[in-house]
Amino acid sequence: MSEALAELSVSLWRGAAAGRYETYVVPRRESQTVLDVVTFVQRHIDPTLSYRFACRVGVCGSCAMTVNGRPRWTCRTHVSKVVAKADGSGRLEIGPLENLAVIKDLTTDMTPFFEKWQEAKGTFAPTKTRHDAIEQIRPDSAARVAADAAIECINCGVCYAGCDTVRWNAEYFGPAALTRAWTLVNDERDGGNTARLQAVAASGGCHACHSHQSCQELCPQTLNPTAAIAGLKRRTAAAYLKGEIKACETKP
Amino acid sequence: MVIARQLKHRNSALWFAAMVHRVSGLALAIFLPLHFLALGLAINGEAQLDRFLHWSDQPLVKLAEGGLVFLLTVHLLGGLRVLVIENFNWRDGQKQLATVAAAVSVLVGFLFLVRVF
Amino acid sequence: MNVRLYVWQRGTAALMAPLVLIHIAVIFYATRQGFSAADILSRTHGSLVWALFYGIFVAAAAIHASIGVRNILSEWSPLDARRAGLFAIGFGLILAVLGFRAVAAVVLW
Protein backbone atom coordinates (compact mmCIF):
# COMPACT_ATOMS: atom_id res chain seq x y z
CA MET A 1 0.00 0.00 0.00
CA SER A 2 1.32 3.41 -0.90
CA GLU A 3 1.08 5.35 2.36
CA ALA A 4 1.94 8.76 1.00
CA LEU A 5 -0.82 8.81 -1.62
CA ALA A 6 -3.67 7.42 0.51
CA GLU A 7 -6.13 9.91 1.87
CA LEU A 8 -8.56 9.91 4.74
CA SER A 9 -11.88 11.70 4.88
CA VAL A 10 -12.72 12.89 8.38
CA SER A 11 -15.77 14.68 9.85
CA LEU A 12 -15.13 17.14 12.64
CA TRP A 13 -17.71 18.91 14.77
CA ARG A 14 -17.65 22.66 14.19
CA GLY A 15 -19.59 25.15 16.25
CA ALA A 16 -20.92 24.92 19.76
CA ALA A 17 -24.13 23.27 20.95
CA ALA A 18 -25.55 24.28 17.57
CA GLY A 19 -23.21 23.35 14.77
CA ARG A 20 -22.53 20.73 12.15
CA TYR A 21 -20.00 18.14 11.11
CA GLU A 22 -17.65 19.34 8.40
CA THR A 23 -15.56 17.08 6.25
CA TYR A 24 -11.85 17.41 5.63
CA VAL A 25 -9.43 15.31 3.62
CA VAL A 26 -6.08 14.54 5.22
CA PRO A 27 -3.14 12.41 4.10
CA ARG A 28 -3.11 8.91 5.49
CA ARG A 29 0.11 8.03 7.29
CA GLU A 30 1.51 4.98 9.00
CA SER A 31 0.88 4.80 12.76
CA GLN A 32 -1.32 7.86 12.45
CA THR A 33 -3.34 8.71 15.54
CA VAL A 34 -6.66 10.55 15.65
CA LEU A 35 -4.85 13.45 17.33
CA ASP A 36 -2.45 13.57 14.38
CA VAL A 37 -5.46 13.94 12.08
CA VAL A 38 -7.02 16.76 14.11
CA THR A 39 -3.66 18.53 14.38
CA PHE A 40 -3.14 18.27 10.63
CA VAL A 41 -6.50 19.89 9.95
CA GLN A 42 -5.78 22.77 12.31
CA ARG A 43 -2.27 23.39 11.04
CA HIS A 44 -2.70 22.88 7.31
CA ILE A 45 -6.37 23.27 6.41
CA ASP A 46 -8.35 25.33 8.90
CA PRO A 47 -6.54 27.24 11.66
CA THR A 48 -9.85 28.21 13.27
CA LEU A 49 -10.39 24.64 14.53
CA SER A 50 -10.37 24.52 18.35
CA TYR A 51 -9.18 21.45 20.21
CA ARG A 52 -7.13 20.49 23.28
CA PHE A 53 -4.02 18.39 23.72
CA ALA A 54 -0.80 18.54 25.70
CA CYS A 55 1.48 15.56 26.16
CA ARG A 56 0.50 13.57 23.03
CA VAL A 57 1.62 10.36 24.76
CA GLY A 58 -1.27 9.30 26.95
CA VAL A 59 -0.38 10.69 30.38
CA CYS A 60 -2.18 14.03 30.66
CA GLY A 61 -5.79 13.25 29.69
CA SER A 62 -6.32 16.50 27.74
CA CYS A 63 -7.12 15.13 24.29
CA ALA A 64 -10.23 13.06 25.00
CA MET A 65 -12.91 13.37 22.29
CA THR A 66 -15.78 11.34 20.89
CA VAL A 67 -14.36 9.18 18.10
CA ASN A 68 -16.93 7.30 15.98
CA GLY A 69 -19.38 7.54 18.84
CA ARG A 70 -17.05 6.46 21.63
CA PRO A 71 -15.08 8.67 24.05
CA ARG A 72 -11.36 7.99 23.74
CA TRP A 73 -7.89 9.51 24.13
CA THR A 74 -7.20 10.70 20.60
CA CYS A 75 -3.41 10.58 21.06
CA ARG A 76 -3.58 6.87 21.87
CA THR A 77 -6.15 5.93 19.26
CA HIS A 78 -4.63 4.76 16.03
CA VAL A 79 -6.67 5.66 12.99
CA SER A 80 -6.18 2.13 11.69
CA LYS A 81 -7.99 0.83 14.77
CA VAL A 82 -11.14 2.90 14.38
CA VAL A 83 -11.43 3.29 10.64
CA ALA A 84 -12.87 0.18 9.09
CA LYS A 85 -11.00 0.07 5.84
CA ALA A 86 -7.25 -0.20 5.41
CA ASP A 87 -7.20 2.21 2.48
CA GLY A 88 -8.61 4.94 4.72
CA SER A 89 -11.94 5.07 2.94
CA GLY A 90 -13.84 4.17 6.09
CA ARG A 91 -15.65 6.70 8.23
CA LEU A 92 -13.92 8.76 10.89
CA GLU A 93 -16.12 11.12 12.87
CA ILE A 94 -14.71 13.21 15.70
CA GLY A 95 -16.78 15.27 18.08
CA PRO A 96 -16.41 16.85 21.51
CA LEU A 97 -16.96 14.78 24.66
CA GLU A 98 -20.58 14.13 25.55
CA ASN A 99 -22.31 15.24 28.77
CA LEU A 100 -20.35 18.50 28.83
CA ALA A 101 -21.21 21.88 27.31
CA VAL A 102 -19.34 22.55 24.09
CA ILE A 103 -17.23 25.69 24.14
CA LYS A 104 -16.16 25.50 20.52
CA ASP A 105 -15.63 22.67 18.04
CA LEU A 106 -13.84 19.88 19.92
CA THR A 107 -13.38 21.61 23.28
CA THR A 108 -15.81 21.23 26.16
CA ASP A 109 -16.32 23.03 29.44
CA MET A 110 -14.88 20.71 32.07
CA THR A 111 -15.98 22.95 34.97
CA PRO A 112 -18.92 20.76 36.14
CA PHE A 113 -16.64 17.72 36.05
CA PHE A 114 -14.20 19.35 38.47
CA GLU A 115 -16.87 20.98 40.58
CA LYS A 116 -18.40 17.56 41.19
CA TRP A 117 -14.94 16.33 42.18
CA GLN A 118 -15.04 18.92 44.96
CA GLU A 119 -18.64 18.18 45.90
CA ALA A 120 -17.83 14.51 46.33
CA LYS A 121 -15.07 15.60 48.72
CA GLY A 122 -12.37 14.18 46.49
CA THR A 123 -9.74 16.19 48.33
CA PHE A 124 -7.38 14.97 51.01
CA ALA A 125 -8.13 16.04 54.60
CA PRO A 126 -4.84 15.91 56.54
CA THR A 127 -4.64 14.86 60.17
CA LYS A 128 -0.94 15.35 60.88
CA THR A 129 1.60 18.15 60.64
CA ARG A 130 5.25 18.05 59.66
CA HIS A 131 6.09 17.70 63.33
CA ASP A 132 4.29 14.40 63.68
CA ALA A 133 5.81 11.06 62.83
CA ILE A 134 5.20 9.82 59.28
CA GLU A 135 2.24 7.47 59.04
CA GLN A 136 3.32 3.88 58.38
CA ILE A 137 1.18 2.58 55.56
CA ARG A 138 1.54 -1.05 54.55
CA PRO A 139 1.27 -1.26 50.75
CA ASP A 140 -0.36 -4.67 50.97
CA SER A 141 -3.06 -3.69 53.46
CA ALA A 142 -6.53 -4.21 52.04
CA ALA A 143 -7.34 -0.50 52.19
CA ARG A 144 -4.15 0.54 50.43
CA VAL A 145 -4.60 -2.10 47.73
CA ALA A 146 -8.12 -0.78 47.14
CA ALA A 147 -6.89 2.82 47.01
CA ASP A 148 -3.98 1.97 44.68
CA ALA A 149 -6.31 0.17 42.28
CA ALA A 150 -8.31 3.37 41.84
CA ILE A 151 -5.71 6.11 42.19
CA GLU A 152 -4.37 6.49 38.65
CA CYS A 153 -7.17 8.71 37.39
CA ILE A 154 -5.89 11.63 35.29
CA ASN A 155 -9.27 13.40 34.98
CA CYS A 156 -9.60 12.84 31.26
CA GLY A 157 -13.39 12.83 31.43
CA VAL A 158 -13.91 9.74 29.27
CA CYS A 159 -15.91 7.91 31.95
CA TYR A 160 -18.03 11.00 32.58
CA ALA A 161 -18.71 11.37 28.87
CA GLY A 162 -19.67 7.72 28.52
CA CYS A 163 -21.96 7.49 31.55
CA ASP A 164 -25.69 7.41 30.81
CA THR A 165 -26.55 8.19 34.42
CA VAL A 166 -24.56 11.42 34.10
CA ARG A 167 -26.56 12.10 30.96
CA TRP A 168 -29.91 11.49 32.65
CA ASN A 169 -29.22 12.87 36.14
CA ALA A 170 -27.78 16.37 36.23
CA GLU A 171 -26.72 16.21 39.86
CA TYR A 172 -24.94 12.86 39.63
CA PHE A 173 -21.26 13.27 40.53
CA GLY A 174 -20.08 10.75 37.98
CA PRO A 175 -17.57 7.90 38.05
CA ALA A 176 -14.32 9.91 38.32
CA ALA A 177 -15.30 12.05 41.30
CA LEU A 178 -16.67 9.05 43.17
CA THR A 179 -13.63 6.92 42.40
CA ARG A 180 -11.38 9.59 43.84
CA ALA A 181 -13.61 9.80 46.93
CA TRP A 182 -13.21 6.02 47.26
CA THR A 183 -9.42 6.24 47.25
CA LEU A 184 -9.58 8.76 50.07
CA VAL A 185 -12.08 6.68 52.03
CA ASN A 186 -9.39 3.99 51.94
CA ASP A 187 -6.58 6.36 52.91
CA GLU A 188 -5.67 5.79 56.55
CA ARG A 189 -4.09 9.22 56.83
CA ASP A 190 -7.27 11.04 55.80
CA GLY A 191 -9.46 12.59 58.50
CA GLY A 192 -12.43 13.71 56.46
CA ASN A 193 -14.37 10.50 56.00
CA THR A 194 -17.57 11.31 57.83
CA ALA A 195 -18.07 14.43 55.74
CA ARG A 196 -17.02 12.55 52.62
CA LEU A 197 -19.40 9.65 53.19
CA GLN A 198 -22.14 12.17 53.90
CA ALA A 199 -21.39 13.93 50.61
CA VAL A 200 -21.48 10.76 48.51
CA ALA A 201 -24.61 9.52 50.33
CA ALA A 202 -26.60 12.51 49.11
CA SER A 203 -28.92 12.37 46.13
CA GLY A 204 -26.23 13.02 43.51
CA GLY A 205 -23.84 10.54 45.03
CA CYS A 206 -22.89 6.92 44.67
CA HIS A 207 -26.43 5.52 45.01
CA ALA A 208 -27.46 7.08 41.73
CA CYS A 209 -25.14 4.65 39.94
CA HIS A 210 -26.96 1.78 38.22
CA SER A 211 -23.85 -0.26 37.43
CA HIS A 212 -24.11 0.04 33.64
CA GLN A 213 -20.33 -0.35 33.75
CA SER A 214 -19.71 1.84 30.73
CA CYS A 215 -17.13 3.70 32.81
CA GLN A 216 -15.21 0.54 33.50
CA GLU A 217 -15.45 -0.50 29.85
CA LEU A 218 -14.16 2.85 28.60
CA CYS A 219 -11.50 3.93 31.11
CA PRO A 220 -8.17 4.21 29.26
CA GLN A 221 -6.35 3.64 32.56
CA THR A 222 -8.30 0.39 33.06
CA LEU A 223 -9.70 1.66 36.32
CA ASN A 224 -12.96 0.22 37.65
CA PRO A 225 -15.25 2.99 38.88
CA THR A 226 -18.17 0.56 39.14
CA ALA A 227 -16.29 -1.39 41.80
CA ALA A 228 -15.17 1.79 43.57
CA ILE A 229 -18.73 3.07 43.64
CA ALA A 230 -19.95 -0.29 44.94
CA GLY A 231 -17.45 0.10 47.77
CA LEU A 232 -18.84 3.53 48.56
CA LYS A 233 -22.37 2.11 48.58
CA ARG A 234 -21.33 -0.44 51.19
CA ARG A 235 -19.55 2.11 53.37
CA THR A 236 -22.34 4.69 53.22
CA ALA A 237 -25.06 2.11 53.91
CA ALA A 238 -23.14 0.90 56.97
CA ALA A 239 -22.57 4.46 58.17
CA TYR A 240 -26.23 5.33 57.65
CA LEU A 241 -27.46 2.28 59.54
CA LYS A 242 -25.10 3.14 62.40
CA GLY A 243 -26.45 6.68 62.46
CA GLU A 244 -23.16 8.31 61.48
CA ILE A 245 -24.60 10.02 58.40
CA LYS A 246 -28.03 11.15 57.24
CA ALA A 247 -29.93 10.92 53.97
CA CYS A 248 -30.14 14.26 52.18
CA GLU A 249 -30.30 15.97 48.82
CA THR A 250 -27.25 17.25 47.00
CA LYS A 251 -27.29 21.05 47.03
CA PRO A 252 -27.80 22.46 43.52
CA MET B 1 -24.77 19.83 24.41
CA VAL B 2 -24.08 17.95 21.22
CA ILE B 3 -26.97 15.83 20.03
CA ALA B 4 -26.38 12.36 21.37
CA ARG B 5 -25.02 9.92 18.80
CA GLN B 6 -25.13 6.19 19.16
CA LEU B 7 -22.42 5.39 21.65
CA LYS B 8 -20.61 2.15 20.94
CA HIS B 9 -20.22 1.11 24.57
CA ARG B 10 -23.98 0.71 24.64
CA ASN B 11 -23.40 -2.54 22.81
CA SER B 12 -21.96 -4.04 25.97
CA ALA B 13 -23.82 -7.04 27.41
CA LEU B 14 -23.75 -5.41 30.84
CA TRP B 15 -25.34 -2.19 29.61
CA PHE B 16 -28.09 -4.28 28.02
CA ALA B 17 -28.48 -6.17 31.27
CA ALA B 18 -29.02 -2.90 33.13
CA MET B 19 -31.57 -1.67 30.56
CA VAL B 20 -33.47 -4.97 30.50
CA HIS B 21 -33.54 -4.85 34.30
CA ARG B 22 -35.01 -1.36 34.28
CA VAL B 23 -37.59 -1.97 31.53
CA SER B 24 -38.68 -5.31 33.03
CA GLY B 25 -39.14 -3.60 36.40
CA LEU B 26 -41.25 -0.89 34.82
CA ALA B 27 -43.37 -3.45 32.98
CA LEU B 28 -43.90 -5.45 36.17
CA ALA B 29 -44.79 -2.28 38.07
CA ILE B 30 -47.48 -1.50 35.50
CA PHE B 31 -48.75 -5.10 35.56
CA LEU B 32 -48.90 -5.41 39.34
CA PRO B 33 -52.03 -3.31 40.02
CA LEU B 34 -53.88 -5.30 37.34
CA HIS B 35 -52.72 -8.53 38.98
CA PHE B 36 -54.00 -7.34 42.37
CA LEU B 37 -57.33 -6.27 40.87
CA ALA B 38 -57.78 -9.69 39.28
CA LEU B 39 -57.13 -11.49 42.55
CA GLY B 40 -59.36 -9.01 44.34
CA LEU B 41 -62.28 -10.32 42.28
CA ALA B 42 -62.50 -13.08 44.85
CA ILE B 43 -64.00 -10.59 47.25
CA ASN B 44 -67.28 -10.93 45.41
CA GLY B 45 -67.15 -14.68 45.54
CA GLU B 46 -65.32 -17.31 43.58
CA ALA B 47 -67.62 -17.06 40.57
CA GLN B 48 -66.06 -13.79 39.47
CA LEU B 49 -62.54 -15.11 39.91
CA ASP B 50 -63.55 -18.24 38.01
CA ARG B 51 -64.81 -16.13 35.12
CA PHE B 52 -61.50 -14.34 35.03
CA LEU B 53 -59.52 -17.59 35.09
CA HIS B 54 -61.70 -18.83 32.24
CA TRP B 55 -60.99 -15.68 30.26
CA SER B 56 -57.27 -16.10 30.87
CA ASP B 57 -57.37 -19.52 29.24
CA GLN B 58 -57.10 -17.93 25.81
CA PRO B 59 -53.85 -18.52 23.89
CA LEU B 60 -52.95 -14.82 23.66
CA VAL B 61 -53.40 -14.37 27.38
CA LYS B 62 -51.27 -17.44 28.07
CA LEU B 63 -48.60 -16.01 25.79
CA ALA B 64 -48.70 -12.75 27.71
CA GLU B 65 -48.44 -14.66 30.97
CA GLY B 66 -45.36 -16.41 29.61
CA GLY B 67 -43.94 -13.00 28.89
CA LEU B 68 -44.66 -11.94 32.45
CA VAL B 69 -42.90 -15.00 33.85
CA PHE B 70 -39.92 -14.11 31.65
CA LEU B 71 -39.98 -10.50 32.92
CA LEU B 72 -40.16 -11.59 36.54
CA THR B 73 -37.27 -14.04 36.14
CA VAL B 74 -35.08 -11.62 34.22
CA HIS B 75 -35.76 -8.85 36.72
CA LEU B 76 -34.89 -11.18 39.61
CA LEU B 77 -31.64 -12.27 37.99
CA GLY B 78 -30.74 -8.70 37.01
CA GLY B 79 -31.38 -7.64 40.58
CA LEU B 80 -29.13 -10.41 41.88
CA ARG B 81 -26.43 -9.07 39.54
CA VAL B 82 -26.71 -5.64 41.17
CA LEU B 83 -26.78 -7.06 44.71
CA VAL B 84 -23.67 -9.16 44.04
CA ILE B 85 -21.72 -6.27 42.47
CA GLU B 86 -22.61 -4.00 45.36
CA ASN B 87 -22.03 -6.37 48.24
CA PHE B 88 -19.35 -8.84 47.26
CA ASN B 89 -15.86 -8.70 45.82
CA TRP B 90 -15.50 -7.87 42.19
CA ARG B 91 -15.66 -10.88 39.93
CA ASP B 92 -14.72 -11.35 36.28
CA GLY B 93 -16.84 -13.09 33.70
CA GLN B 94 -19.85 -10.88 34.32
CA LYS B 95 -20.73 -10.57 30.65
CA GLN B 96 -20.96 -14.34 30.34
CA LEU B 97 -23.06 -14.53 33.51
CA ALA B 98 -25.40 -11.86 32.15
CA THR B 99 -25.87 -13.84 28.95
CA VAL B 100 -26.55 -17.01 30.93
CA ALA B 101 -29.07 -15.13 33.07
CA ALA B 102 -30.91 -13.94 29.98
CA ALA B 103 -30.96 -17.48 28.58
CA VAL B 104 -32.27 -18.91 31.87
CA SER B 105 -35.07 -16.31 31.90
CA VAL B 106 -36.11 -17.21 28.37
CA LEU B 107 -36.02 -20.88 29.33
CA VAL B 108 -38.21 -20.36 32.40
CA GLY B 109 -40.71 -18.36 30.33
CA PHE B 110 -40.68 -21.09 27.70
CA LEU B 111 -41.18 -23.85 30.28
CA PHE B 112 -44.17 -21.96 31.62
CA LEU B 113 -45.69 -21.80 28.14
CA VAL B 114 -45.10 -25.52 27.67
CA ARG B 115 -47.02 -26.18 30.86
CA VAL B 116 -50.02 -24.01 30.09
CA PHE B 117 -50.48 -24.89 26.44
CA MET C 1 -31.56 8.40 45.05
CA ASN C 2 -29.97 8.93 48.45
CA VAL C 3 -28.71 6.43 51.00
CA ARG C 4 -32.05 6.02 52.76
CA LEU C 5 -33.95 5.16 49.58
CA TYR C 6 -31.06 2.93 48.53
CA VAL C 7 -31.14 0.93 51.77
CA TRP C 8 -34.90 0.46 51.51
CA GLN C 9 -34.78 -0.54 47.86
CA ARG C 10 -31.89 -2.99 48.18
CA GLY C 11 -33.29 -4.31 51.44
CA THR C 12 -36.69 -5.08 49.97
CA ALA C 13 -34.97 -6.54 46.91
CA ALA C 14 -32.95 -8.97 49.03
CA LEU C 15 -36.08 -9.87 51.01
CA MET C 16 -38.05 -10.54 47.84
CA ALA C 17 -35.46 -12.72 46.11
CA PRO C 18 -36.53 -15.92 47.90
CA LEU C 19 -40.19 -14.81 47.82
CA VAL C 20 -40.07 -14.49 44.04
CA LEU C 21 -38.55 -17.94 43.68
CA ILE C 22 -41.32 -19.43 45.79
CA HIS C 23 -43.91 -17.44 43.85
CA ILE C 24 -42.60 -18.80 40.53
CA ALA C 25 -42.77 -22.30 41.98
CA VAL C 26 -46.35 -21.66 43.08
CA ILE C 27 -47.21 -20.39 39.59
CA PHE C 28 -45.79 -23.51 37.98
CA TYR C 29 -47.56 -25.78 40.45
CA ALA C 30 -50.93 -24.05 40.14
CA THR C 31 -50.90 -23.89 36.35
CA ARG C 32 -49.90 -27.51 36.07
CA GLN C 33 -52.78 -28.56 38.22
CA GLY C 34 -55.14 -26.36 36.21
CA PHE C 35 -56.63 -24.86 39.32
CA SER C 36 -60.06 -23.32 39.27
CA ALA C 37 -60.97 -20.44 41.55
CA ALA C 38 -62.45 -22.89 44.04
CA ASP C 39 -59.22 -24.91 44.08
CA ILE C 40 -57.13 -21.81 44.77
CA LEU C 41 -59.43 -20.30 47.37
CA SER C 42 -59.89 -23.55 49.25
CA ARG C 43 -56.12 -23.56 49.77
CA THR C 44 -55.71 -19.91 50.70
CA HIS C 45 -58.87 -19.43 52.71
CA GLY C 46 -58.14 -18.90 56.39
CA SER C 47 -54.45 -19.62 55.89
CA LEU C 48 -52.11 -17.62 58.11
CA VAL C 49 -49.12 -18.81 56.13
CA TRP C 50 -50.42 -17.48 52.81
CA ALA C 51 -51.55 -14.27 54.50
CA LEU C 52 -48.09 -13.66 55.93
CA PHE C 53 -46.24 -14.74 52.80
CA TYR C 54 -48.18 -12.57 50.38
CA GLY C 55 -48.73 -9.78 52.91
CA ILE C 56 -44.99 -9.36 53.31
CA PHE C 57 -44.51 -9.73 49.56
CA VAL C 58 -47.04 -6.94 48.88
CA ALA C 59 -45.44 -4.57 51.40
CA ALA C 60 -41.95 -5.19 50.04
CA ALA C 61 -43.08 -4.89 46.42
CA ALA C 62 -44.92 -1.63 47.09
CA ILE C 63 -41.79 -0.07 48.60
CA HIS C 64 -39.41 -1.53 46.03
CA ALA C 65 -41.46 -0.70 42.94
CA SER C 66 -42.25 2.85 44.03
CA ILE C 67 -38.57 3.67 44.60
CA GLY C 68 -37.74 2.12 41.23
CA VAL C 69 -40.46 4.14 39.53
CA ARG C 70 -39.14 7.27 41.23
CA ASN C 71 -35.70 6.63 39.75
CA ILE C 72 -37.08 6.11 36.28
CA LEU C 73 -39.22 9.24 36.49
CA SER C 74 -36.38 11.44 37.71
CA GLU C 75 -34.05 10.20 34.96
CA TRP C 76 -36.34 9.66 32.00
CA SER C 77 -39.21 12.13 32.48
CA PRO C 78 -39.27 15.92 32.72
CA LEU C 79 -40.65 15.73 36.28
CA ASP C 80 -38.53 17.34 38.96
CA ALA C 81 -37.33 15.34 41.98
CA ARG C 82 -40.14 16.49 44.22
CA ARG C 83 -42.93 15.60 41.79
CA ALA C 84 -41.31 12.31 40.92
CA GLY C 85 -41.18 11.52 44.62
CA LEU C 86 -44.84 12.41 45.14
CA PHE C 87 -45.93 10.32 42.16
CA ALA C 88 -43.89 7.42 43.45
CA ILE C 89 -45.42 7.63 46.93
CA GLY C 90 -48.87 7.70 45.37
CA PHE C 91 -48.04 4.69 43.22
CA GLY C 92 -46.67 2.81 46.23
CA LEU C 93 -49.85 3.49 48.17
CA ILE C 94 -52.00 2.23 45.30
CA LEU C 95 -49.95 -0.96 45.14
CA ALA C 96 -50.18 -1.44 48.89
CA VAL C 97 -53.95 -0.85 49.03
CA LEU C 98 -54.74 -3.07 46.03
CA GLY C 99 -52.26 -5.68 47.17
CA PHE C 100 -53.51 -6.00 50.73
CA ARG C 101 -57.05 -6.05 49.36
CA ALA C 102 -56.10 -8.94 47.09
CA VAL C 103 -54.50 -10.83 49.98
CA ALA C 104 -57.61 -10.25 52.06
CA ALA C 105 -59.76 -11.36 49.13
CA VAL C 106 -58.14 -14.79 48.93
CA VAL C 107 -57.55 -15.36 52.62
CA LEU C 108 -60.66 -14.02 54.22
CA TRP C 109 -63.32 -14.61 51.60
**Structure summary, number of beta strands of chain C:** 0
CATH homologous superfamily title of the largest domain in chain A = Alpha-helical ferredoxin
- CATH class of the largest domain in chain A equals Mainly Alpha
Order of helices and strands of chain C: HHHH
CATH fold label of chain C = 3 helical TM bundles of succinate and fumarate reductases
Q: Output the number of helix runs of chain C.
A: 4
Order of helices and strands of chain A: EEHEEHEEEHHHHHHHH
The number of distinct β-strands of chain A equals 7
Give the topology, please.
The complex is a heterotrimer of chains A (252), B (117) and C (109).
Chain A lengths: L6 E9 L3 E9 L6 H12 L18 E4 L2 E4 L5 H4 L9 E4 L6 E3 L2 E2 L2 H9 L22 H9 L7 H5 L1 H5 L6 H11 L7 H8 L13 H5 L6 H17 L11
Parallel strand pairs in A: 1-5
Antiparallel strand pairs in A: 1-2, 3-4, 3-5, 6-7
Chain B lengths: L12 H28 L5 H10 L3 H29 L6 H23 L1
Helix pairs in contact in B: 1-3, 3-4
Chain C lengths: L2 H31 L3 H8 L3 H29 L4 H28 L1
Concise account of the structure shown:
The complex is a heterotrimer of chains A (252), B (117) and C (109). With 252 residues, chain A is of the alpha+beta class.
What does this structure look like?
The complex is a heterotrimer of chains A (252), B (117) and C (109). Helix content of chain A is 34%, strand content 14%. Chain A has helices spanning 34-45, 79-82, 111-119, 142-150, 158-162, 164-168, 175-185, 193-200, 214-218, 225-241; strands spanning 7-15, 19-27, 64-67, 70-73, 92-95, 102-104, 107-108. The termini of chain A are far apart. Chain B is mainly α. Chain B is 77% helix and 0% strand. In chain B, helix 1 crosses helix 3 and helix 3 packs antiparallel against helix 4. The relative contact order of chain B is 0.13. Chain C is mainly alpha-helical and 109 residues long. Chain C has a single domain, classed as 3 helical TM bundles of succinate and fumarate reductases (Up-down Bundle). The A-C interface holds A 165, 168-169, 201-203, 205, 207-208, 233, 236-237, 240-241, 245, 247-249 and C 1-7, 10, 74-76, 81.
Keyword list:
heterotrimer; A: 252 residues; alpha+beta; Ubiquitin-like (UB roll); Fumarate Reductase Iron-sulfur Protein, Chain B, domain 2; 2 domains; 5-stranded mixed beta sheet; 10 helices; 14% strand; B: 117 residues; mainly alpha
